[in-house]
Fold these 2 entries.
Entry 1:
Amino acid sequence: MQDLLYFSQQLINGLTIGSTYALIAIGYTMVYGIIGMINFAHGEIYMIGAYTALIAITGLASLGVVWLPLILIVALVCAMIVSSSMGWAVERVAYRPVRGRHRLIPLISAIGMSIFLQNYVHLAQGSRNIGFPALIEGGFTFGSDGAFQMSLSYMQITIFITTLICMTALSLFIARSRTGRACRAVSQDLGMANLLGIDTNRIISATFVIGAALAAVAGLLLGMYYGSVDPLFGFIAGLKAFTAAVLGGIGSIPGAMLGGLILGVSESMTSGYLSGEYKDVVSFGLLILILLFKPTGLLGKPEVEKI
Amino acid sequence: MAAHNFKHALFCAFITLLISYPILGFNLEAQGINITITGADTTTILGVLLAAVVVFLFQLFRDQIMGRVGDLTSLTAGKHKEPMAENRRAKIESWVLTGIVILALFWPFFMSRGAVDLATLVLIYIMLALGLNVVVGLAGLLDLGYVAFYAVGAYTFALLSQYLGVSFWFALPIGALLAATFGLVLGFPVLRLRGDYLAIVTLGFGEIIRILLNNWTNLTGGPNGIGGIPDPTLFGMEFGRRVKEEGNTSFHETFGIAYSGEHKVIFLYLIALVLAVFTALVIRRFMRMPVGRAWEALREDEIAARSLGLSRTAVKLSAFTIGAFFAGFAGTVFASKQGFISPESFVFLESAIILAIVVLGGMGSQIGVVLAAIAVTILPELAREFSEYRMLIFGAAMVLMMVWRPQGLMPMRRIHIELKKQE
């Protein structure tokens, strides 16, 4: 019984983290699916989302607003707006001019952008980590007193529900809406979509904006969950999310969701049963193994190299 | 058109405000558990507004401005000079380079200790950048975990000296070879991956090595690092005031001169200089050898190169291993210079700086990379008050470089014949 409780606790923790990784991974996978580049600055956009949410929350608190749903919704909307503007601007400044050049060039440009954004926030808000107020407290506990107690906090439930809503909305958007259809068309064949009258530049911008908005949601959720933010907050999370995207098969949206969950669970199992220090090693090791043995990921399509 | 331009410009200006005002306009301050928020000072807010206005005007008159800039560049490009004859150019180049090296040999004796120390650091970066240049510039493999090999070299020397008392001169080849072995072992499985996947995997390797160094406390001392790394000796002569090891003599007593701390600094500089020149020469030879040609062939067109019978794995692996070898070299010198190393010196940012040097210098070009290494290391020292903006400027420079001049400041030149345009 004890072991089962401990195991379920790790599972819940893993699924919580994993679902936020999935939210960030969507941005990587959509961009990769359409223009075939790794948006290295995506982790920073997520970090900016977390900072904006924190600024909005603190600002509202200093104005004397105490009604929790209002605070959360305003913070979420602010974070999504600022992050998606950032995503749009980054694509416009750093990626569009180099699109279609040699593979390394957009990638180096993206690394430069990532360093730039990290230091931009570092200079504006300082390098120390800032505490994120725990707005949603409490939760359920299972198990008897004196022994190991499994807890499922309201925060974790919020994360699950928000992620679920975002994913459903995204799936519906991609499947049903005009822009979503155009997105799928562009990711299948950019040139052909262009010939058929789709404004591909607009669709690519839209992809960046959608990815950034989801990353902002993850920023708010993870910021509250971890309880602090700092300018380097996005880098590791971005890498993890990229791992999740590759794990699920880059370019595939359901793959990103699946990959995020698997990565989150394997990470929390490592820190639960081995040691917390090596959880990053496990996720990077997982990434390397997947790339070596199944580079297309779990749900990805094999890429045929054409001459 | 004008109306569309105006709307677009307004939109861009609005976005500028949106991405800069919330982050720059408010300051979060942690006071105990509570966080307070304050508005930024007026200059920052004016700056944000000014930025929005500049973006607005630029977007509004974009066509005119870009047209003007285009005219300027086409003017300078129009003045084609007949290139110098190849053998004459090579001769001049080698004379100039020899002159610079000789100058660099005597230069430290007239400079302050701090300047020589900085110059040693520059030389270490030159070694690193030349090594990475083989991997990224010549072979076209984006390695984001290059700093891992640097760490292997540095830690090899530190551990060998701590546990076995090995001296610098023994550790130098061992460190470099061990780093090369790491490159070989790590490279073998990953090099079949495509460019951007390779970048991420190498980044993962770099992080794994750093995390291991950080957590393997019994061996590496964890975050506390390893101290007391010995200085290099000159034929058994030590540079300290007193001789530490049995059987050694001290430099100043042997030559009968007064003890000075500068001797050691200059000696380290000279070692770094010799090793950097050695690195440059070896890589220069490699570039002219069949393997060097193969690197570039594979970079330019993998399918074509393979169909001509080049082994993809062997060629890539050789580049990767050679790059790692020189990183190990640089690592050993770095450990000896600092006397203390910890995992903090080997973070991803370091990889990014070395990559930035290679990119700014012009991928593949040795002279460009050397100049960029000097600029990137010295400029922040000269402008100390701007030093916190260093990484910001780096990032922006990398992006701008890729947008405007992806071939770098001094692109590599190849012997080539241009087809004459038909009239």
Entry 2:
Amino acid sequence: MSATVAGGVAVLEGKNLTKYFSVKRGHGVLARRALLYAVQDVSVSIGAARVTAVVGESGSGKTTVARMLAKIISPDGGEVLLDGRPTPRGRPREYARQVQMIFQDPFASLNPVHRVRHNLVRPLKIHHVTDDVDATVTGLLRRVSLEPPEEFAAKFPHELSGGQRQRVAIARALAVRPRVLLADEPVSMLDVSIRLGVLNLLADLRDAEGLAILYVTHDIGSARYLADTIVVMYAGQLVEAAPSVSLTDEPAHPYTQLLLSAAPDPERPQPPSLVRSGAPPSLIAPPSGCRFHPRCPHAMEICRRVSPPSVEVSSGHSAACWLHVDSDRRLLEEERTPGSVATTDPSAPQSAPECSQPTSTTRTRRKEA
Amino acid sequence: MMAPEAPARTPSAKPAQLAEPVLEIRGLCVDYGYGADAVSAVVDCDLVLRRGEVMGLAGESGSGKSTLAMAAIRLLRSPGVITAGEVLFHSRPFSEEGPRGTIDMLAANDSVLRTVRWSEISVVLQSALNALNPVITIGAQFDDLLRVHRPSFSNRDRWNRSAELLDMVGMTADRLRSYPHELSGGMCQRAMIAMALALEPQVILLDEPTTALDVVTQREILEELMGLRDQLGFAALFITHDLSLLVELADEIAVMYAGRVMERAPAASLFHAPRLPYTYGLLNCFPPMHGPRRPMEGIPGSPPDLRVLPTGCAFHPRCRWAMERCRQERPVLRPLGGPNREVACWLHAGDATIPRELAHPEPPAAAGRPAATGPARAARARR
């Protein structure tokens, strides 16, 4: 499934990205290695002068996608394309110069024993960007609205507030004049009152300098505000991709609908009840078929057996859900996959220990009470 | 079911008369450090938590909201010092044992505090994974608690009660054998809530209980909590920086800035008709989920340094309507128009022209009851 970039050229593209992590299960002699399917077959493209948001719960693989695009970790499957061309293995310096990452925690991502100036000069020196270091540092601090720049350059990170630190982190990413910014939850550690300031800064960078920005977040409200395109991830897979307003106004995938109904929204008269809506599955033993089916209110027989294809719901809006597949194709799929698939792996959702939220027995017990 | 004798809340009778206070905080001041180095984290705060109500306490980090709550039950860590004020706990326990009558929390000695903490006023902390003991099972932690506070219980009673409590928050009894690291963040927080409710407290202090959780889990837990509130009748002080969440949840909201309560109002009034520029700014920090996208400003500047507070109103450097008076004189909390709402802002005192944004009409009284308890009640009816 691919997020299409409307009206822009894809600068950076991840194609069918897949990542497994090997994790240890059990203790001592019983310890076993198991594979954790962190990201499976996810395609994202980031266009110039566009913000693409990746939205999902923790553990949905959104940060892993960003890190694969930054080449901090290498994918186990799929490839990363820069300007449509395959990128070399590893993380060559030339790649890092074009694709920069901003991390979640500005308290941890800046070197605390050096002044802001040093933090900004490092990338300039490493990448031989410029000779006039002082003017560049001043310019960078101006670009992220830290005025007066001379004063901020002389400060230590601990003398800055969270928002200012994140601005320094953004300035550092901008130092090498990248074309792509990968922002991994850039505002979630900041106070609510200064979040919009940082988001607006990212929007300005997109509009004024044509940066391609990937905005990873769990807050669908801020994604709607900032992003042009939103892709929604669930349990390591892409479930929906669409222009941001279209996605939030007409969510097609039941998971997106769940996310939207959970977001705080004081304006709606009656928030929908989400009691017992379950939890994301274990990624070591993910459910068969659609990974959302154990929590899905509309789950059908085929959802348990066959992973849904991505279908176009409307122009530029695609969702991976059987509900949007026309019935002929669904029946065809159903016939093609023998029912025995279901019998070989019927316990997948139950076998996942992390998703042992309320069992049906508790639910009935509570009803009686 | 736990505490069948708990007073049933009658929501329809709510807005007309106010419930009796259960926790009264008056003029509370808290400093960190002594003498010249002291930083005033909480200054002259008044709050009244009423029986069975949810009071929301909102503000940025460093605004003193957690300090205020921790000081009220004397859980403040050194170098925090309570320098003035009084905290009265009007106890009317749900169970037979437990102290009755008014307790002056700041004057109480350790043995009195021991009868109050946890059994009458309990706390749920932000990071459940850190708040639970990592080396013993959830069941052992319940057992610890009940062994001390319910000495008459047998082993079997304690186990049954623990299982019942977990069931109340939507967890199965087999989780009692789990260690905290075997549970997800949401489950740990549920276990924490079950533990806080174990002794049928009258007041529960929730210090950012869902900040570390995902939105879906957050809403589930809050719904559970509100359902339990309706069922058990405890009052809650809910501390969070997420004002949009509070509006859906709380009966009344107090907004803190730089250690002071700056605005206090019923939740619906605060949301539809904020009077304080800071509240207005906070409400405009959350991009709407509907309608056309438009640029939003948030609040310019950053939260003040408590060591060098601006003169006059602490918010004036970030306020778009700041006047000369705001730079010189500090506004005090004063009653404003509608019932039980107060605001500390010069715009609403004297003959200043009130900007249009801060002069929205009060919502109709029917909306005085926030919507959030609706689904909790509906959810309970479905069960």
